Amino acid sequence: MLELFLICLAVGVGAGLLAGALGLGGGVVIVPALIFLFHGLGFPPELVAKMAVATSLSTIIITSISAVRTHHKAGFVRWPVAFRLGAGIVLGAFAGAFIADAMKGELLARLFGLFAMVIAVQMLVMGPREADASLPERLPGALGLGLAGVLIGTGSAIFGIGGGSLTVPFLSWCRLKMQQAVAVSSACGLPIAIAGTVGFAVAGWDEPHLPGGAAGYVFLPATAGIVLTSFPFARLAARVSHRLPSATLRRVFAAVLFVLGLKLFFG
Q1: What is the 8-class DSSP label of residue 219?
Q2: pLDDT value at position 94?
């Protein structure tokens, strides 16, 4: 248990840095780390991926609160946009938990591996794209943002991420400035995490083979270890992201993420 706790502390550092600096929510590093960790602990193989995704979402609740507070104080959160996206996100994230529950654990792990590799390539090849200040924003109306939120929430819950990997590119396409896109993404990570966590807890509540310490598919000891470090590091990284370029961190993380994705995809 001590080894589990120490590993989760380290995972939390990486998750917090990514959530605050890049708007990624941290799930892209938490999920693969927990899949490997839970396999090592001897958890039932068919439950490992679902527990990793659910536990990742539970940690993002705390990480998102920390990151969004800092972005809000800096004045970068566009709250009307966040609220309209959030309405659809809640519905999508809750439904996404039950969709993931219906999948076989091995399929879910492979899908996450493929998703991780796609995100890694996107980060390496494209990088962050700052909106052209000479072009007007092209945000859709309330209905369009709500529908986008449903899609973002569903995908985020299935893969156990805070949604930044989907929200930031979408808002960048809408021509929001990158700092605003990252800040809105952090704000949207909270409803994704809450709705997804509740969904996974309900979906797995009657699962008879869960280990002790689990609430549905959420493994609470891992949640506690990760949030202890993800909370302060998300706040620190959010402050740093307002002053420093994140290109180097993005490239390093993308390379590591691609390797982890390969491992998960091929088993």
Answers
A1: E
A2: 94
Region of 175 on the Ramachandran plot (φ > 0 left; ψ -120 to 50 alpha; else beta): left
Confidence of residue 242 (pLDDT cuts 50, 70, 90): low
Q: What is the pLDDT of residues 43-59, one digit of tens each?
A: 999 999 999 999 999 98
d(CA 193, CA 183): 16
Burial of 120 (0-12, 13-18, 19+ CB in 10 A): buried
What is the per-residue pLDDT across 67-124, written as a single tens digit (0 to 9) for each? 788 888 888 899 999 999 999 999 999 999 999 999 888 888 888 889 888 878 876 7
CB proximity list for 61: less than 8 A, separation 6 or greater:
190, 193, 194, 197
Our measurement of the distance from residue 2's CA atom to the centroid of its chain's CA atoms, rounded to an integer in Å, reads 25
How many CB atoms within 10 Å of residue 250?
18
Q: Work out the burial of residue 267: count CB atoms within 10 Å of its CB; fewer than 13 is exposed, 13-18 middle, 19 or more buried.
A: exposed
Cβ(109)–Cβ(35) below 8 Å: yes
Rounded CA-CA distance 109/38 in Å is 12
Cα dihedral across residues 172, 176, 181, 187: positive or negative: negative
Query: Are residues 195 and 90 in contact, defined by beta-carbon separation less than 8 angstroms?
Result: yes
Q: Are 3 and 222 in contact (CB under 8 A)?
A: no
DSSP string, 46-65: HHHHHHHHHHHHHHHHHHHH
From residue 72, how far is each of 66, 172, 179 by CA, in Å?
A: 10, 19, 11
